[in-house]
Structure formats: structure tokens, C-alpha cells
Amino acid sequence: MGGLKKSGRWQKLEKLEKYGVWLYKKKLPPAPGFCLVREAEFQGFRCRILIHFCHFPYQSFLLSFQYSFVAVGISVQPDITPSAAMGSIEEPKKQQRLRLPWIETPLIESTSLSKAAGCRVFLKLDNLQPSGSFKSRGIGNLVRSHAADPANKGKRLHFFIPSAGNAGLGAAFAASALSYPCTVTVPLNTKPVMVKKLQQAGARVVQHGVNLDEAAVRMREMMKELSDHPTPGGTEVVAIELHPFDRQQIWEGVSSMSDELAYQLPPAEENDPCLHKALPCDAIVCSVGGGGLMNGLIMGIERQAPMLEASANNASTNGTTSATTASTSDDNIHIIATETRGAHSLAASIEKGSLTSLPKISSAASSLGVLRISQKTWDYYNSPPKGIKTHSLVLSDADAARGCLRLAEDEKILVELACGVSVEAAFGPHHQPETDVPPAKKVKLSSEGSAPATNGETVVPGINKTFLQQLIPNFGPQTRVVVVVCGGSNVSLSMAAEWREKLDAGWGSDDPGSIVVPPTSA
């Protein structure tokens, strides 16, 4: 931090020795209120600086390396990884220097997709993670938290996971990045291309059984064998099983996406409805399999909210709150949880009114193929934090394929069906001539997932309102929607070509309708 200079009317107020941060103060005109987050490395550990812009005549300036930000409230928090359970920001340097097995990904505003959707569409490109999907954040943080656990000091860790998809790749890349071995057990029917990808990522791949349950049984047998046979030299080997989505550390890792959105999204202007939201956006569209992505996003938004409240209090005290904005805006961020029919475990639970399991997976979007969502996902859906509303949207496999092809054609990005369903959610329903469309009607859930399922309304192709218009209040050209491009490796050019041929041949034309479940209350 040496070399920082003050000049003119700058007054040095305080040096925070602990963090290496200097705080300055200068009289400036009021600025719109919004929040930024920056990551930096201070004294050998990574920390996150939460910086709040708000209406206030006397604002502070934080100078950190090459950055300068207007700020009133500044709090320096430890990086959310490893998790808080792993210790405080003041732990020894050697426990905090583990590299992150994921990267910060770009957020781009798509002109073509915005025009098609009738609003501002931002794409969060987590398909660019090392593993090809957002799993690098969650599984990566889970691996990293075990590696940073003092209880594992001096031990040889070996990670195991039963997965034939993105979770396995996330584990393999994370373990390899931190120089640990990883074994992935997969069913015998796993595609050779996926086995090859796992091996290239550094994993030992063991094929066993007809499904993941049988593969998991074999995995636990190998874990026991490893634990029962110490390595030469007497070093203890710790075999660690990784869950693909239902762990606190996974959600904490995914929550880093919300932190990135806080400073990647354009700041809200005065009188902008987003001014009073934890993030400067109106909605986030994300895919739901087990619910890890949704959980992490909500957890991150919840972490941003206290700074927003502090800004609102300061603005109110100084009489700068816009009465028009406060009285007419919707202060909620709408989380639109998308699934494909046949992998709709969240929607099935909503219909039943309690957490339930699907009898089987019939969707081609295999990465969404979780029979039962996590308890945390169910809790978040029914009782989201203040400032958040949750919605469930179920589309067909054909819709998901349309989303994949739309993204490929407009943005030259190739993703799998599990991701394409969120893309299509921002543009659907797929329109057909209204003369060919029967009226909308109420439907009941099919336990097999073969029919639309909701206690809400079936949205039939041809209805004038898009999904976003139905779900987001005051929808218009300035509405901001973030689509999480979660990525995935179960895709190829030949698969995309096959989807195009099937759609041209009428795939999805007999779709009985998409499923929109009424929102929860904030």
C-alpha cells in the first residue's frame, strides 16, 4: 500500500493497519446509491471490500491499489471461501493462501437478446469456469474448505464423488488445482466422451453399476479400502465424499456470483427502480436441479442487503429519497427458477405442498436430473429473504433446445439443455399463430412428469405475454434481467445439429404448455 499520495483538499482520516486500507474524506455533491464489491489480497489473505455509494453530502474515498471509489460505509470481510467455519480473517497466512479453483466470469449485456426479450438482458457467463460450469464455484469451495480445515493438516486428502456430469468435472478440476487426487465413480452407461473429459481433468474414473446409486455404493467401498490401508510412511489418508449440491460450503462458493454481479451490473441511476434493491437488477433467471445455484445466488443477495439498507437510511436522513421511485417501484429481486418437464422436482414439491421426490427422471436435460431438491432450496422458495421473490417455471426439452440454439446463433455460445432452459425462459413462450392456440386452462401435476404441473396457470404458446412480463412487475425496456449461463459439458456440435433437425420436424409442437407457478411473498 506504500506510494499512496494525498493532494489538494484530501484529508487523511484513518489508516486501517489490519487491512492496509486508507480512508479519505472530501465534500462532494450527492451521488446515486448503489453498492460495489472488490476483491484484493491484503497481508497474504484474500478479502472482499464492500463499498457503498449513497446520497450523502460528505462522502469518503477509499483508495486501494489503482482503484478509487466513493464510499460512506466500508466493511472489509474475509473471502467467503473457505467458509466462515474454516476460521476468521486473522488466521495464519498459510491457512489462507489456497488458490481459488474458480474464476471471476464476465457479465455482458446482449444487444440481440435484449431486443428479442423487450428488456435489458445480461448474461453471466459461468460457462467459462475451468470445469465449464458454475460447479467450479460450489464444488471448488467445498474442496477448498476441506483442504483449509486445520483438522486435515498433515494428512493426505483424497476426494471422491459419484457423478457422470458437471459436479464430477467440478470436483476433478478443483482437486487438481489444489494438487489433490480425485476419484469419480460413474455408471457403466456413461458416455465415453464424458469419461474422457473427467480423465483429462485429472480424475481417476471408475465405472460401476447401472445408475449413480450403484456407482455411489462402489465409491464408498473404495473409500473404506483406502482408509483401511495406510500409505508408506504412516501418513494418514483421509477419504472425503463430496455431495454435488447439498452442502453449506457449496452455496457459499456459488454466492460469489452475486458478489460479482454487485459491481459488474451498471449502477442504478436516481429514480431507477433498481436503486432500492440489494443488486441493481430486477430478476435473475437460473436453472434448478438440486438447487445449489439458486441457494448460492439468494445467499449472496442476502449478504448485499445490509449495505443497501444503510444507504437507504442515510438517504432518508438527508432527505434525498425519491418519493416517486419509492412509491411506484417494486423493491424485490425476482428469482426465476427454471426446470425442464421430467426433471421438475421443485415444481412437484410446490404442487404437493411439501418436499417430495420424483419417481424418475424423464427429461433429456440430464444435469437437472435430481429426484429431490435440497431442504434449503425448499425453504428459500417458500420463505425467501426480504427483498426477494421466488418463482418456478417449467419448460419442455424442446424449449430448452431453442434456448441453446438461440444462444449459439446470437452469442456464439454452446451450452447444454440444462442451461438452455434458462435462456429460453427470458424469451418464451414460443409463439405460434393465435388461431392455432387453445385457451389456457388449469392443470394438475402428473407424478410422472409427462404433463404440465402447477397450481398456477398453464401458459400456452401464442399467449401475448412473455414469461418475464407475467412474473416481473412494471416490466419494460429498462427492466434488467440477468440470465445465469451456468454452462455444462453435456453438449456438442452434433447434438446441437440434432436439436435443430428435431425442432424443424415439429419437436415440441404438441407441448401442452409451460408451467408458471405463482410467486412467493417476500
Automatic annotation (TrEMBL):
Its main location: cytoplasm. Pfam families: PALP. It is found in: Cytoplasm. Residues 428-459 are annotated as: Disordered. It comes from the Eukaryota. Its cofactor is pyridoxal 5'-phosphate. It is an enzyme of class 4 (lyase). GO terms for cellular component: cytoplasm. GO terms for biological process: gluconeogenesis; isoleucine biosynthetic process; L-serine catabolic process; L-threonine catabolic process. Keywords: Cytoplasm, Gluconeogenesis, Lyase, Pyridoxal phosphate. Residues 447-457 have a biased composition (Polar residues). Residues 102-426 form the Tryptophan synthase beta chain-like PALP domain. Belongs to the serine/threonine dehydratase family. This is L-serine ammonia-lyase. The lineage of its organism: Eukaryota, Fungi, Dikarya, Ascomycota, Pezizomycotina.
